[in-house]
Specification:
The protein is α/β, with parallel strands linked by helices. Helix content is 31%, strand content 14%.
Length: 382
């Protein structure tokens, strides 16, 4: 059979940052069964292309990616969280647990749709899940109906020995009771690895920190790894978690004997009460500022993650201004918020903050490296 695969996210005007793992597994499965498989490039998609294939799969990860009208055909098999969110049908076991086809995305496709600083993620990483599921039931998350974390696969299932690095997309690895075994398995590969989705900092203790921060974690310094360029990803989505996050940040600095940087995804724009009124958007904005203040105090960098409803906020332009400077540490490290905004000519936001949240403008993110003497710190913010 002739099998056509469509990465719907490639149809977007946005640049593609990651390969579609489900399509890579479908490709491998069909090739192993003697089928001809092709990732259909955008310039070959039209109303007639489907006649060239016996079966066509179309997948997407992001719900805001538009699906061209000529793809909305009953003969095409659609799948992925971008279409069905948490109701997306799972791949059959024999496909889910096959080695991904790491050659699916050709060099020409990668060059045309992938930012130059992201090409490595298509060419240098083995990609997969060692666990699935989560314990948090966050309403905005695809795992909102999950109740536990369970083992999904061994690393060997998706490990390409020719690739120098490993990227894990586990949703909450630290909530897995045997997470230490997973880290040991990863360390044994001698390949630097990274949990890209972020880890649950609320579950950390001294022992967890020793396991995670002393692991063979990936460094952003290129193929020549440098511990000082390691970035560990966490999340600070809810202001109600401030006390626990701050307690663990203090613990992190008290016991720190390793070189690394820590970064927190900071959610904005999602109303757990589903009201989305002006009171919510004001409180949500203030929560963002407060969480950034906590992270700056402990030399942790924020990465602003916007739920789609942030676009409805009357403070949208100020959210985008803060996101612009915070999401790129080079813009903010060693500077006050005011200085970073001035350098980006974001004067309207400076004026707004000066009138309403003047304290925020004076915040400064010092070097992301180096240990803080926690005994010299003021009382916890939270």
């Amino acid at each position: 059979m002739n099998i056509g695969l469509i990465d719907n996210d490639l149809c977007s005007t946005k640049k593609q940052h990651y390969p579609n793992l489900a399509l890579m597994k479908l490709s491998s499965y069909h090739k192993n069964n003697g089928d001809n498989v092709k990732l259909i490039p955008i310039d070959e998609m039209n109303g007639l292309f489907q006649s060239q294939y016996d079966k066509v799969y179309c997948a997407k990860v992001f719900s805001d990616t538009e699906t061209p009208e000529y793809l909305q055909n009953k003969g095409i098999i659609f799948g992925g969280s971008g279409f069905y969110f948490d109701k997306a049908e799972k791949l059959p076991y024999e496909i889910e647990h096959t080695m991904p086809d790491y050659n699916l995305y050709s060099d020409s496709v990668i060059k045309s749709v992938v930012p130059s600083n992201r090409i490595s993620q298509f060419k240098d990483f083995s990609i997969g899940f060692t666990t699935r599921g989560c314990i948090r039931k966050c309403d905005f998350c695809i795992n909102r109906n999950e109740t536990k974390v369970y083992r999904h696969s061994n690393v060997s299932e998706f490990l390409d020995e020719t690739r120098p690095f490993i990227m894990l997309w586990d949703d909450n690895i630290i909530a897995f009771k045997e997470y230490e075994k997973v880290f040991a398995e990863l360390n044994e590969t001698n390949k630097p690895f990274i949990f890209k989705q972020g880890m649950d900092f609320r579950l950390f203790n001294k022992h967890t920190m020793d396991i995670v921060f002393n692991s063979n974690y990936f460094s952003y310094g290129g193929k020549k790894q440098n511990k000082a360029f390691r970035i560990f990803h966490f999340a600070f989505d809810n202001i109600k978690d401030a006390k626990k996050i701050e307690e663990n940040l203090i613990l992190y600095h008290k016991n720190r004997s390793y070189a690394c940087r820590i970064m927190f995804y900071v959610l904005i724009g999602f109303d757990r009460g589903m009201k989305y009124d002006n009171d919510f958007y004001k409180e949500d904005f203030e929560s963002l500022l407060f969480r950034i203040k906590i992270l700056f105090k402990y030399r942790a960098s924020p990465y602003i993650m916007c739920h789609e409803n942030y676009k409805k906020s009357p403070l949208l332009k100020h959210i985008e201004a803060i996101r612009k400077i915070c999401n790129y540490p080079v813009y903010i490290t060693g500077k006050t918020i005011r200085q970073a905004l001035e350098m980006s000519n974001l004067t309207i936001t400076i004026e707004y903050l000066n009138s309403n949240y003047e304290w925020f403008l004076s915040l400064k993110l010092d070097s992301l490296l180096g240990k803080i003497d926690t005994d010299t710190l003021d009382e916890p913010i939270s």
